[in-house]
C-alpha cells in the first residue's frame, strides 16, 4: 500500500534532519582538528609539506588498502617528498559521537607519540566534508601476514621463535612508552592492530579505544571494550571494577601464541564467539600449541 502524503513528508523531513546532523558533526570535527594542529600540513623526515589532495598523485592512482571503523585507507605517493603514505579518509557516515571519540583518541596518540614501534603520523587535512589522516605506509598487518603464512605451511608448523620474540619485544617497548610518556594503555592489542613496516620493523597502531588520563591521575579504566578473544578472564567475568595496563599484557600473550601457531587462535572459539565457551576453554586449559613451539 502506498504511503500517505503525510508519511512521505515525515520521511523526507527525517532525511533532511539526518543530513543536517551529519554536516554539523563534520563541522564540529573540523573545529576539533583545528585545535590539534595545522590542517593541510604534514611533516615527513623533519620537513613540512602540503598534504592537501593536490600534494599527492591523482586519486585514480591511489591503491585501496582496506576499510575500518572510520572509513577507508589508501596507499598514495606524496609528490614533493617522494614518500609512500597511508591516507585514512573519514566518511560522513562514520562521524557519530562514539566513532568520533575513537577517531580523536587515535589521532591524539599518533600525533603526540614519537617511538620506533608506533606508527608514524605525518599530518591531516579537512576538505569537502572529508577528513584525511596521513601516516607512514606499512607492508601489511600481522593478522594478514600470519594468515598468508598459514596457507603456505603444513598444519602444526610453528612460526620461527625469533620472529615471535622480535614481535613481542617491539610491542612491549611500544606499550611501555605509552604508559611512561603518554599515560596511556592500548586496550586492543591483537595481530590486526600491529603492522609490519617496509624496513621489517614492528609498529603498534589503532588507538581508538585506548585509555589516556592526565599525568596526575592513576592509569585505570572501567569500560568494557576490546575483543573478547584477547580479554583476560577477570574482565570477561566482570570480577574487577576497574583494570589497568596488565590487560595489554594478557592480550599480547594471546597474540604471541597466535603468531607462534600461525593464525590458529590459542583459545579455540566458535564463529559466534560465545563467552561461556571462551571461559570454559581458559579454565580447562583447552589451548592450542603447535608441537614444535617451546613453552619458554
UniProtKB/TrEMBL annotation:
Protein kinase domain residues are 59-296
Assigned keywords, A-Z: ATP-binding, Kinase, Nucleotide-binding, Transferase
MF annotations from Gene Ontology: ATP binding; MAP kinase kinase activity
EC numbers on record: 2.7.12.2
Against InterPro entries, the record matches this protein to: Kinase-like_dom_sf, Prot_kinase_dom
**Single GO biological process annotation from the record:** MAPK cascade
Q: Give the main EC class.
A: transferase
The entry's family comment says:
Belongs to the protein kinase superfamily. STE Ser/Thr protein kinase family. MAP kinase kinase subfamily.
* Protein name (record): mitogen-activated protein kinase kinase
Organism of origin is: Monosiga brevicollis (Choanoflagellate)
Instruction: State the taxonomy lineage.
Output: Eukaryota, Choanoflagellata, Craspedida, Salpingoecidae, Monosiga
Amino acid at each position: 500500500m502506498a504511503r500517505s502524503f503525510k508519511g512521505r513528508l515525515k520521511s523526507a523531513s527525517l532525511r533532511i534532519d539526518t543530513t543536517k546532523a551529519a554536516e554539523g558533526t563534520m563541522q564540529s570535527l573540523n573545529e576539533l582538528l583545528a585545535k590539534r594542529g595545522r590542517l593541510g600540513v604534514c611533516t615527513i623526515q623533519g620537513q613540512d609539506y602540503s598534504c592537501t589532495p593536490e600534494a599527492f598523485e591523482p586519486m585514480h592512482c591511489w591503491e585501496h588498502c582496506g576499510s575500518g571503523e572510520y572509513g577507508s585507507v589508501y596507499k598514495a605517493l606524496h609528490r614533493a617528498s617522494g614518500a609512500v603514505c597511508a591516507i585514512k579518509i573519514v566518511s560522513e557516515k562514520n562521524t557519530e559521537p562514539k566513532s568520533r571519540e575513537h577517531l580523536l583518541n587515535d589521532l591524539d596518540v599518533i600525533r603526540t607519540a614519537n617511538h620506533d614501534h608506533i606508527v608514524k603520523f605525518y599530518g591531516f587535512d579537512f576538505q569537502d566534508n572529508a577528513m584525511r589522516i596521513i601516516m607512514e605506509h606499512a607492508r601489511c598487518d600481522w593478522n594478514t601476514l600470519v594468515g598468508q603464512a598459514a596457507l603456505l605451511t603444513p598444519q602444526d608448523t610453528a612460526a620461527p621463535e625469533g620472529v615471535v620474540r622480535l614481535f613481542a619485544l617491539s610491542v612491549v617497548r611500544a606499550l611501555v612508552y605509552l604508559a611512561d610518556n603518554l599515560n596511556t594503555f592500548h586496550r586492543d592489542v591483537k595481530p590486526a592492530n600491529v603492522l609490519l613496516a617496509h624496513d621489517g620493523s614492528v609498529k603498534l597502531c589503532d588507538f581508538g579505544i585506548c585509555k589516556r588520563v592526565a599525568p596526575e591521575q592513576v592509569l585505570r579504566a572501567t569500560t568494557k571494550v576490546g575483543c573478547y578473544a584477547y580479554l583476560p578472564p577477570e574482565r570477561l567475568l566482570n570480577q574487577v571494577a576497574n583494570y589497568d595496563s596488565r590487560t595489554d599484557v594478557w592480550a599480547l600473550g594471546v597474540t604471541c601464541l597466535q603468531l607462534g601457531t600461525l593464525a590458529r587462535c590459542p583459545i579455540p572459539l566458535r564463529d559466534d564467539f560465545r563467552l561461556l565457551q571462551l571461559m570454559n576453554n581458559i579454565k580447562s586449559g583447552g589451548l592450542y600449541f603447535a608441537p614444535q613451539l617451546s613453552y619458554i
